[in-house]
């Protein structure tokens, strides 16, 4: 039983950690591309900014879903019988 709980804790840490790294890299790449495109065509900056914020919300939503799954495993563990 302790082995299962230890592995679940390790899995929760991996889910949250890798999700945070992925979301951070994704938002950083998207922000860099936004700055490049707004420097090339400043007249499209408002439209690009709107789309960038929508995509940033979707990237963060994917990370928060991973956090919710990790919390599910941590507190309502389906693997313990």
Proportion of residues in β-strands: under 5%
The CATH topology name reads F1FO ATP Synthase
Average pLDDT reading: 91
Helical run tally: 2
Helix content: over 70%
What separation lies between the terminal Cα atoms? 9 Å
Question: What count of domains describes the coordinates?
Answer: 1
Specify the CATH homologous superfamily.
F1F0 ATP synthase subunit C
Biggest sheet descriptor: none
- The secondary-structure class comes to mainly alpha
Radius of gyration: 18 Å
Order of helices and strands: HH
* CATH C-level class: Mainly Alpha
Name the poorly predicted regions: none
**What is the approximate shape?**
elongated
Which architecture name does CATH use? Up-down Bundle
Oligomeric state of shown chains: single chain
Number of extended strands: 0
What does this protein look like?
GO terms for molecular function: lipid binding; proton-transporting ATP synthase activity, rotational mechanism. It is a multi-pass membrane protein. The chain is mainly alpha-helical. It has a single domain, classed as F1FO ATP Synthase (Up-down Bundle). Helix content is 86%, strand content 0%. Helix 1 runs antiparallel to helix 2. The mean pLDDT is 91.
List the main descriptive attributes of the protein structure presented here.
81 residues, mainly alpha, F1FO ATP Synthase, transmembrane helix, hydrogen ion transport, proton-transporting ATP synthase activity, rotational mechanism
